[in-house]
Amino acid sequence: MSRALARLRETTGDPLLVRAGRGLVPTPRALELRERVGQLVQEVEAVLRPAEQLDLKRLVRTFTLRAREGFVENFGAKLVARAGREAPGVRLCFVQKPDKESTGLREGSVDLETGVVGTVTGPEIRVQALFRDSFVGVVRKGHALSKGKVTAARYAAGRHVGVSRRGREQGPIDEALQAIGQERKTAAIVGEFASALALARASDLIASVPERQTGVLRSGLFTFPLPFEAPEVTISLMWHPRMDADAGHRWMRGVVLDVCGGKAGRP
Q: Using CA atoms, how far apart are residues 64 and 72, in angstroms rounded to an integer?
């Protein structure tokens, strides 16, 4: 062990372990290496693990899915039902997605993630498109925009609720309006689509949200197509490459692709 430690110290140029009283404590470099080496070991184990015949009826496992609000409301019940039919021992754990960081996928605390691929998404993360989503306008029933033709001018003249995790005043909707010489007045800014819809439900504010992701959340509200060329977003399924060869994970990816994206083809 001493010889192995000496070789590691020489290779890394760091003492790695130093005395603290009668014991030894790791240096910051040692702690960093421990985390990175642990990930490498997991990836090597996945590569060298012999191919196995997956028996879904005997599979006992929890899959953690990270997604924005609206995902569980729109797809959760179908995913649970599908997984229950094929693998009764499988449990799904849905967690919220406050940001686009890939830490959960890297660390293994998250199995799958859905959403828009961002600049902070790790370059090693595997990505498969689920579906494209377009924005729609939403108001309470009885709102002025629920009657008559909705034009860009009528839309822009109303009071709006914007959605931005970082509280930004301008976004893709504003840019699309500016391209046709229109500008909207944003009376409130919230961080989630569900919050925007709650405000629209209880006031005269206009919310603009992605259509497919908010289908259930828009129940009881009046939805209309945006009267201008609105932005579209691609919702993708993401996972860490160390899970590529895992038979159970491959099955779960296929379930999500089928339920959320239709017969989109499996990885």
A: 12
pLDDT in tens, the chain (267 residues): 678 778 877 887 888 788 887 778 888 888 877 777 777 777 777 666 655 688 999 999 999 999 988 899 999 999 999 999 999 999 999 998 877 788 889 889 999 999 888 777 778 889 999 999 999 999 999 999 999 999 999 999 999 999 998 888 899 999 999 999 999 999 999 999 999 999 999 999 999 999 998 999 999 999 999 999 988 999 999 999 989 889 999 999 999 999 998 543 333
Query: Tokens in use for 265?
Result: 């083809």
CA 132 – CA 211 distance, rounded (Å): 10
What domains, with CATH codes, occur in the chain?
2-48 (no CATH), 114-267 (3.40.190.290)
Q: Which structure tokens are listed for 136?
A: 């729609």
User: What count of Cα atoms within 13 Å lies in the side-chain half-sphere of residue 140?
Assistant: 14
This prediction's pTM: 0.71
185 backbone dihedrals φ, ψ, rounded to 5°: -105, 115
Number of other residues whose CB lies within 10 A of the CB of residue 245:
17
Q: Determine the Cα–Cα distance for residues 180 and 93; give it in Å rounded to an integer.
A: 44
